[in-house]
Amino acid sequence: MFEQLSDKLEGIFKRLRGQAKLTEENVSETLREIRVVLLSADVNFKTVKDFINTVKENAIGAEVLTSLTPGQVMVKVIHDELVALLGGQAEEPTFQGASPFQILMMGLQGSGKTTACGKLALHLRTNRNKKPLLVACDVYRPAAIDQLKVIGKSLNIPVYDEGNGDPVRIAENGRKFARDNGYDLVIYDTAGRLQIDDELMQELERIIASLKPQEKFFVADAMTGQEAVNVAKTFHDRLDFTGVILTKMDGDARGGAALSIKSVTGKPIRYVGTGEKPDALEVFHPDRMASRILGMGDVLTLVEKAQSVFDEKQAKQLEKKFKQNKFDLDDFLQQLRQVKKMGSLTDLVSMIPGMSKLAEAKIDDKQLVHVEAILSSMTAKERTSPKIIDGNRRRRISLGSGTSIQEVNQVLKQFEQMQKMMKQFSGMASKMGGLKKMQKMMGRGGMPGMG
Questions:
Q1: Do the Cβ atoms of 251 and 2 come closer than 8 Å?
Q2: Residues 308, 335: one domain?
Q3: Helix, strand, or coil here: 450?
């Protein structure tokens, strides 16, 4: 996401780094280029105009510290304004008020609304300990109810439906069912509609008037850019939604919708869809997104992803194996499977500061699949004792995994190199441990010059 925008901004900042100081002239020149970049990224014209004016005012008045270059100062000013443009801070439902807590989903047909209902229910069950119920109020689109039921079944989340009927009555009965059966969260999947379809908009108004939901989320397809923003504005003017869910953000290389929607509607982006998997829905953090746009990485999201898939007890056991140099191919296979759960390698690498160029190389996730297939084709004994893998065993592993003998040899060679490196690290660690003991013996300050 934001790939084109990030590349162009990086080129602009690179040229500015060669300047000795920030002047009105070079700031104006830089902002002219940024204006073109933002407009080509399909950002709303008025949003671009206000953004450029604010950045210019702050950049010309910014004091360049001796430790900072003009380029670094400009990046900081633009980062701060991008954060404000994207909404300032992350916002999630507070879950205050009477139970069940109600979230109404609205949007155009084809925006990914029904899928977003399932992803949001899973996210709030996993991360906020909620007991969700999905209510099927889309009685117009063929198979919409069946789609929601399939999603609910795959996630083990119940779906309330009455087939075809009055959506207002279905929504009311769904709320009653939730109250009677102990569900503390209800998510209503309403029919996709055009903003010019007055009859369907009136129906949505009746549902809102009857339910009085605490949250009303507008679901928009990020790939449609400015069109998504224009539709959101029309919906908001009439229905006053509380937040936005942007779907298909992983395919949005320009970022126009994400950068415009808050300034145009006044309502924040709450969540973004980042893939097709059920758990590919993230809380939208403006500060982290601004950092990623400017090629500064997103370490916090990377850490959260790691925490969500790595088991603490297993991590301690692994640390022990590292120190004792007993890490084997079985451990390697387990770690590989956990890393896969975190998502695309390209996305993960892009979150590491300074690694955006490597991410652009489009790391092939299929290579991980090949490595996993090779390791899975080994016996348990072969994974714990790789040295027994002779020519015949390598041939059998390659046939079993659908890979070549050369690929099997490469995996074994890379693992051998990794073991050697770990042996060096474990040796260094033991020396450091000895050093610390010696420092304690010499008193609080340790040995002179060894701090």
A1: no
A2: yes
A3: coil
Query: Please, what are the averages of pLDDT over each run of 10 residues along the chain (451 residues)?
Result: 72 70 76 85 85 82 57 78 85 85 90 92 93 92 89 94 90 94 94 75 91 92 82 88 88 71 88 87 86 64 57 66 71 74 62 51 67 87 86 89 88 80 62 49 39 30
- Domain hosting residue 72, numbered range: 3-86
Distance CA 215, CA 347 (A): 30
Q: Which residues does 444 contact at the CB level (< 8 Å), separation at least 6? A: none
The whole-model pTM stands at 0.67
Alpha-carbon gap, residue 355 to 345, rounded angstroms = 12
**CATH code, domain with 241:** 3.40.50.300
* Cα atoms found within 13 Å of the Cα of residue 39, Cβ hemisphere only: 11
Look at residues 90, 97, 137, 100 and name the one whose alpha carbon lies nearest to residue 117: 137
Q: Which of 226, 302, 298 is nearest to 264 (CA)?
A: 226
Partnered with residue 282 across adjacent β-strands are: 272
Q: In one letter, which amino acid is 148?
A: L
Tokens of 350: 């892009």
Would you give the distance in Å from CA 379 to the centre of its chain?
A: 36
What do you get for the CA distance between the two ends of the chain, in Å?
44
